[in-house]
Each structure stands twice: as C-alpha cells, then as structure tokens.
From TrEMBL:
Stretches of the chain forming a coiled coil according to its record: 35-112
Species per Swiss-Prot/TrEMBL record: Shewanella salipaludis
Top-level taxon of the source organism: Bacteria
Keywords, sorted A to Z: Coiled coil, Signal
Entry annotated with the keyword Secreted: no
Protein name (Swiss-Prot/TrEMBL): DUF2959 domain-containing protein
Length: 215
C-alpha cells in the first residue's frame, strides 16, 4: 500500500512537471522501471485501439440508421450519428496519444539499455545482452509500424464522416440523405479495413507484451 501510494504521488507530481526523464528516474526509485512502464503503455495503447474499434463501429451503425431513416424524427437520428462521429474522433485522438507515449518510453528504454551494455565487463554477457536488445528493438519496430499503420487509416474515415455530417447539417432532408447514401459502402469498407488493421496491431501488442513479461 505504501509503495502504491508513493507511486501515485510520484506519477502525479511528475506529470504536472512534464519532464519525462525526471519521471522515469523517479519511477525507478520506487521500483517501477522503464520496461514496466513500456509494458503498461503498450497495454494502454492496445486498449485504446479496442475502444476505437467499438466507437468506429458504433458511428457506422448510427450512420446506417440515419441513411435508412424512413419516418420519425430525422433530426434526432442525425444528432445520434453526429455524436458517434465526435466520439470516434475522440477515440482516434486517444489512440495517437497512447502510441506517442509508447514511442517515448521505448526511446528511453533502448538508450538506457545500450548504455548499460557498454558497462558490462564480461564479453559473453555483453554480447548476450546486445543480442537481446537487437531482438527486442526489432520486435518493437514491428509493433510500432503496425500501430502507426492502423492509426493512419483513421483520419480519412473521420474526414469522410465529417463531410457527411456537415452536408446533412445544412441539408437535413430525404433528398440529402439519398445523395450521400452512395458513399456509405465505401465508408463501410474503410472501417472494416481499419478494424482488421487494428486487430493486427493488437495481436502484435500481445506478442510484444508476452516477450517482455516472459523474461
């Protein structure tokens, strides 16, 4: 309990200070090393991708409901679709923030690891650690590439959703809905592709986490 409280206090104070190097140093003093932070941040990034998948799917479902609208309160249906689009935008922003945090701690971890290898006097241990560093870095680069590929698929989808929402905002009637109905199939395909790409990234995250936690 005492250690957990110390961890919370250190985290809060250093996040306010905004200095990552000081943050990592302070966290290490309470037994929370860069490797631990990296595992947690990869888990957070994975979780944000899972949440984004759900949110984009919800936005697609509400847009489908709007385009299929055949009576009742059209503005209410539009508002629900707009709210889901805005939530998808928030989810996308969170994914990007968490990937950035993974990248930040990875750079710090690998720099520290490389420095410490140079401090190992025994050649065989130094070679072994260097081999492990290269393997971990390679695995990480594969993970980061997968995360960034999934991330890159979100902005075009959000742009298309925004275009549709703005068009409907100014022309909320059956004719306007009919005008954008043809774009829905393309949007549906794009979101399906996004979800598949995120699933690949999530799988890479699980492999990377297992490789670090298994040591």
């Amino acid at each position: 309990m005492k250690n957990a409280l110390s961890l919370m206090l250190v985290t809060a104070s250093l996040l306010l200070g905004g200095c990552q190097s000081a943050y990592y140093g302070a966290m290490e003093k309470v037994g929370y090393h860069k490797r631990d932070i990296m595992v947690d941040r990869v888990k957070d990034a994975k979780e944000s991708q899972q949440e984004a998948q759900e949110q984009f799917s919800s936005a697609l479902a509400e847009m489908q409901a709007l385009l299929s609208h055949d009576g009742g309160d059209l503005e209410q249906a539009y508002n629900k679709a707009r709210d889901e689009y805005e939530s998808a935008q928030d989810a996308a922003d969170e994914v990007s923030k968490r990937i950035d945090k993974v990248e930040d701690v990875a750079e710090a971890l690998f720099e520290e690891w490389q420095t410490e290898i140079g401090e190992i006097s025994k050649a065989s241990l130094r070679r072994s650690s260097d081999t492990k560093l290269k393997a971990t870095r390679s695995s990480y680069q594969k993970l980061l590439g997968s995360m960034r590929r999934a991330e890159a698929k979100m902005p075009p989808i959000l742009t298309a959703m925004k275009d549709n929402m703005l068009y409907l905002k100014h022309n909320l009637n059956a004719r306007a809905i009919g005008a954008i109905r043809g774009e829905f199939a393309s949007l549906k395909t794009d979101i399906s592709g996004l979800i598949k790409e995120m699933n690949k990234s999530i799988a890479e995250s699980n492999k990377f986490i297992a490789s670090l936690e298994g040591e």
